[in-house]
Amino acid sequence: MTWERLLQKKEQFCQIREYIPKEVLESFDKSFDVEYAHNSTAIEGNTLTLVQTRVILEEGLSVGGKTLREIYEVTNHAKAFDYVKKRVSKGLSLDESAMKDIHALLMENILTGGVYRNVEVRISGAGFKPPAPNEMYRQVKNFFADLPYRTDLNPIELAAWTHAEFVKIHPFVDGNGRTSRMLMNYQLMARGFLPISIAKESRLEYFEALEAYAVDGNLTPFAEMVAALEEARLDEYLAIVQEPE
To answer: In whole angstroms, how large is the CA radius of gyration of the chain?
Structure first.
């Protein structure tokens, strides 16, 4: 994956976007929103299917045999993503207050969101240990202080770093994964790229890429994963204009 190729495709997309019928763009956006909510919650163990997620989000129907928590997880995800999209459309940059709001929306009716943990946590199967509460507070402050100055990273690397570093700090008792994926997409969209969804089927590769960063400081595997997903999304839109009449 070359950065130049991805940048070229992004510029092509920006040029052709106005020629794509509005209803087609809306259809693509709606389909992505459902897929993203499904995948991001399924990675964390939610058992709702893609079809069930669509029924809940698009038709407002409930699903039998599922817990209220699982239903709240997908409806909360949609609310949090709408919040991110609104902030991006207003040109507002990512900050600590917005991150807490995102977490609070994701955790609505589940637990009190936007409140940092005051206990130590472990991530099962992970080769690293999240920092103790006092150190975690310091790392969160440093994370947001550093964010505007990471000019050494291109936009894809910055989005990948935002996710990988945040989930390594693990500032909340629950919901760190969903929050970090929201922050990653916030960064992508704020820089004119499309949001991406990491498929639940790719969770092993995804966790291994995050582990490479958390343990060895190697961002490359995860940045390459983000780049490949971004390119695939751009290709979907570029193919619309290239399709014969």
So the answer is: 18
CA separation for the pair 49, 55 (Å, rounded) = 10
**pTM for the whole structure:** 0.94
CATH number at residue 28: 1.10.3290.10
Q: What is the 8-class DSSP label of residue 1?
A: -
The single residue listed with the structure tokens 């087609």 is 24
Tell me how far CA of residue 173 lies from CA of 39, 42, 45, 115, in angstroms. 21, 18, 16, 9
Which residues are tagged catalytic? Answer: 170
Cα separation, 211 vs 188, in Å, equals: 21
DSSP letters spanning 35-87: HHHHHHHHTTT----HHHHHHHHHH----TTS-HHHHHHHHHHHHHHHHHHHH
Rounded Cα distance, 175 and 167, in Å: 10
Number of domains observed in the structure of the chain: 1
pLDDT in tens, 131-170: 899 999 999 999 999 999 999 999 999 999 999 999 999 9
